[in-house]
Amino acid sequence: MARKRTKRRISAKRRRPLRNRYGRMHRSAFQLGITAAKEMLLQHEIIPFQLMDMNRRWNHWLKLMKYSVHPWSRYLQLNRSFFQGITHQSRIPAPHWLLLPTDQTVAAIVTAMNEETTIDQVLNQLKRMPLTEIIVVVNGSKDQTFHMVRKHADVVAVHFNEPLGHDVGRALGAKISRSDIMLFLDGDIPVKAEQLIPFIGALNGELDAALNEMTPYLNDFSQRDGVTIVKEMLNRVLGRPDLGANSLTAVPHALTRRAVETIGFENLAVPPKAQAIAIKKGLRIGPAAGVDVVASNRIRKTNVGIQNPVSELIIGDHVEALHYVFKEDGARMSYADEIRKRNAVFEVNV
Amino acid sequence: MQRRKRRGKKPRSALNKKIKPIQNSVQPHVSVVIPAMNERRTISRVIYEASKVHGSTEVIVVANGSRDGTDRLAAAMGAKTLFFAEPLGHDVGRAIGAKHAQGNIVLFLDGDVVIPAKHLVPLVRAVEAGADVALNKYIGPVNRKKVHSVILAKHALNMMLSRPDLKGVSLTTIPHAMSRKAISMIGVEHLTVPPLAHSIAIHKGLKVVDAHYIEVGRTNPIKRKKRSGKDPLESLIVGDHLEAVHWLASHTNERGNFTDLGRDRKRVR
Hints:
The complex is a heterodimer.
Chain A: H1 2-40, H2 48-64, H3 72-90, E1 106-112, H4 119-126, E2 133-139, H5 145-150, E3 156-160, H6 168-176, E4 181-186, H7 193-202, E5 209-212, H8 226-237, E6 253-256, H9 257-263, H10 271-280, E7 285-289, H11 309-329, H12 344-347
Parallel strand pairs in A: 1-2, 1-4, 2-3, 5-7
Antiparallel strand pairs in A: 4-6, 5-6
Helix pairs in contact in A: 1-2, 1-3, 8-11, 10-11
Chain B: H1 14-17, E1 30-36, H2 43-51, E2 57-64, H3 70-76, E3 80-84, H4 92-100, E4 105-108, H5 117-128, E5 133-136, H6 149-160, E6 176-179, H7 180-186, H8 194-203, E7 208-212, H9 232-251
Parallel strand pairs in B: 1-2, 1-4, 2-3, 5-7
Antiparallel strand pairs in B: 4-6, 5-6
Helix pairs in contact in B: 6-9, 8-9
C-alpha cells in the first residue's frame, strides 16, 4: 500500500502541468470540431469535399494556436479530439479520419505491379486523409491490381501493359500530379496514415525532400548488405554523413513540387541520382520519420541473396549518381591529393 | 642540444644494431618494396623480416623526405635504397619501388609497421599458387553502427566492382603481394592510387584474393590522425576511392555495367 502511494504521488506531480497544457489544446480542438460540425451542417456522413473544408479550418486553427508540429504523437491526439468534437455535435462516427498538417495540396503516388493482395490496404490508408490526388501507376500487372484500383472512387489509375522498370512509375506519377507536395509509396507496402503524416508535415516549410529515417533499423556495419553500404557512401562523399543510409530509393518519402522540378522528372526514375542532384543543388533534404519497410518488404525471386538483380540495379544507380557528380565536380570531387607527387613515377628511370 | 642519458638501459640505436645486415639476391624471386619516411625506429627490423620471406629476395627501400637517417640505416642493412630528398606523398613510393623491382612477385610493406616474416609468407605463397593480387584480410573495426569513411569507401568500392565477397579488403591496406603480370596489367603509375589499382585489377579480370589476416590496426594510417580538425589523410583516401569509381564508370558505362532491369526511361522525357 505504502509503496503504491509513493509511486503514484511522484508520477502525478510530474504529469500535472503537462496534462493541463495538453488539456487546454485538446478542449480547444474538441470545440473546433463542434463549431465545424455546426457550420458545415453535417448530415449522414462526411464526404471528401467536406473533409477538405475541415482541413482548411484545422490548419487555420493550428496557425492560431502557434502549434509546433512536434511531437507527431500529440498531433494525432489533437486530431482525434477534433473528430470527437465532430461526432459529439453531428452524431456521425468519424473515428478513422486524419487531417493534414498543411494547407498545400498533397498527392500520393503509388506504383504497383502485381500487388492485388496489398493495394487495397495501401489505398484504404491513403483515403483516410484529405489528399488532393491519389495516383496509382499500375504497370506490367498480370493480376487484378488494376481492377481493384478502379473500384476506388477518386483514385487516378494509370495503366501500362508492360512493366516500366524500377522507379519509372514514380517519375510518371510525379509528372501527372499537379499538387504542391508529393508522397511516394509502393503498392506492396501498406503504411499507416498516421506514419505518413510526418512526411507531409516536414515539407510544410521545413524540408524540400523528406526521407524515411532507416538508421534505427540498421544492424552493425558488418551485417549490412551492399545496397545499404553504397547508400551511406553516397551521402558521406556528398558531405551529408548525417543522412546515414537514408535514401530516396526507400519508400515512403515525400518531395515538394520545387524539389521535383529542380531534380527533373526523368531523374526521379533513378532515385540515388535524384538524391545527388538534390544535395548538389542545395535542396533541404532530411529524414522525416522512421517507417520500418525492411521487415514488410515482399520477398521475390529478384531480391533474395547477396548478388540479386535488384541489389545490382541499386548499386548501378549509385554508380550513375556518382557519375553525375563527377561530371560536375571532377573525378575526386572535393577530395584533392595535391601532396601526392604522381609524376615522380615517370621521372624515375630504371 | 644536450642528449639525456638513458641510465641503466642500452643505447637506443642498439635495437637496430643487433640486427645482422641482409644480402639482396642478384636474381630475386621476390622483391619487397618498402616506402619509408622518417622511420628510423623500425626500418631495420622491417628490412630484416622482409628478407626472410623467401630464399631469393631483394629488399627495396624508397626513402623519401627523411631527415632522420632512414636512408643510411636502410643502406647499411644491405637493402637497395632509393633516395628522394623531398616527400613523394602517399603511395608514390610503392609505384617507384615496383618500377625497380626485378622479382616475379612483389610484396608491398610500410616502413613503420614491423610484421614478422611468418605472416608475410602466406601472401607470397598465394601468388605462387596462382593469385595475381594477394591482399591482407584485415578490414578494421566494423562491428559497430558507424564506421570510418575509409572503411565505408573500401566496402562500397568492392560492391561497385561486384566483389561483395571481398567486403572491405583492399589494396590500400598493407601488406599485399602481386605478380609481375599484375603490375604490368595495372600499370605501374596507377599504383600511386591504390584503390584505382584495385579497381583496374578486378576489372581486368586478374585473380584478386584475400589471402591472410594480418592485424595492422594499431599502426594503420587512419588511426594516426591528428587530434584536431579534419583528417587530411581520410579525405585523400576517400578521394582515391572516388577516382577509382570514376575510372570504372569511364571504362564501362555510366552505370558501371550494372543492370537497369529494363527501365523504360523514355516514358518520362
